[in-house]
Amino acid sequence: MRMSKIRGPRDCEPGSSWEKPAMRRRPGITLIEVLVAIFIMSIGLLALLTLFPLGALRMSQALQYDRAASCANAGANICDAFDLRNDPFPLQPPQLPVQPGAFYPAYVDPYGVAISSGPLGGSIRRVAPSFIPAPNNTPSTAAARYFTLLDDMTFYTNGQADSGANPGTASLQRGDRYTWGLMLRQLSPSSVPSLTVVVYAGRATALPGGEATYAVQAGTGTYQDTSVTLNYTGSAPTIRRGTWILDTSSDPATGLVHGDFYRVVSVTTVSATQVNLELQTPISRAITAVTVMDNVVDVFDRGTAPSSQWEFHTQP
After folding, report:
1. Which residue of 2, 28, 158, 205 is most buried, as measured by CB atoms within 10 A?
2. Most trustworthy range by pLDDT among 122-136, 142-156, 182-196, 271-285
3. Beta strands in the chain, from DSSP E residues, in sequence order
């Protein structure tokens, strides 16, 4: 009888007749392998899906900055065309010089004048050009022509009743989303007033509001500092990263309002009545009071240069 060859460790030596059995393919995959594959694929899909809202957010921000730059360009050209910086008398009410010294800042804001918002921060006179009628509570159509973005159009599907025979014709209407104001400051009696263009997005143009003034905690807001602490009562100020604040402090020697703008980069709650603001740029003059302006998306400081030399850039 033929004996079978014993397959043991010695059979694996060179020269032996033992061969490794061939691997057989499985007829399918296990449930665990399927679940692991689905899990890995879902992680990749989730990572891909997060790009869509981030992309939409970046696109919205880019569009807003582009519109703000267009508004600043238009506002500066209007200021230059009507010579609002050099001649204070076209402003209503007239911004007369203070003798001796420079005149107080003037904020050219026909919408604010129309809705009777009063002085900006309680100290900066709010004026409108004489070519824009601004009766109380009734913003003029001229304000929309000269102080809103002309390219901001929307299609109003409900239509307007132009006549009894044509009651439902849809039309293009101005969105009036982007508006602006012009801050004029003369730093010395003989200097050309400097210009700062303040661009709003979604500002209410029919009701007063959107501005609040707060006192600054003593010992903060000093020269070249980068933070300031505000005191408040009641509800906390609506301040977040990117909010613009206006220095409405007055110089103790001359009584002139500063009128400097600062951008907030972080907000920290100090106590139930105090909040600390980290600013993007150092403080140029000691601050004792600030005004928070809602719906301001960007501020463009043009200085005293002529409009032909202006270049507009948004801040990231």
Report:
1. 205
2. 271-285
3. 91-92, 106-108, 125-129, 153-160, 169-174, 178-185, 194-201, 211-216, 227-231, 244-247, 260-271, 274-279, 289-293, 296-303
Q: Which of 11-25, 62-76, 151-165, 219-233 has the lowest mean pLDDT?
A: 151-165
Closest CA to 177 of 197, 142, 205, 210: 205
What is the chain's mean pLDDT, rounded? 77
Phi-psi region of 166 (alpha: psi -120 to 50; beta: other; left: phi over 0): beta
Yes or no: say if 129 and 181 are a contact pair by the CB < 8 Å rule. Answer: no
Work out the burial of residue 120: count CB atoms within 10 Å of its CB; fewer than 13 is exposed, 13-18 middle, 19 or more buried. buried
Q: Is 5:11 a contact under the CB 8 Å cutoff? A: yes
* Of 233, 232, 231, 195, nearest in space to 216 by CA: 231
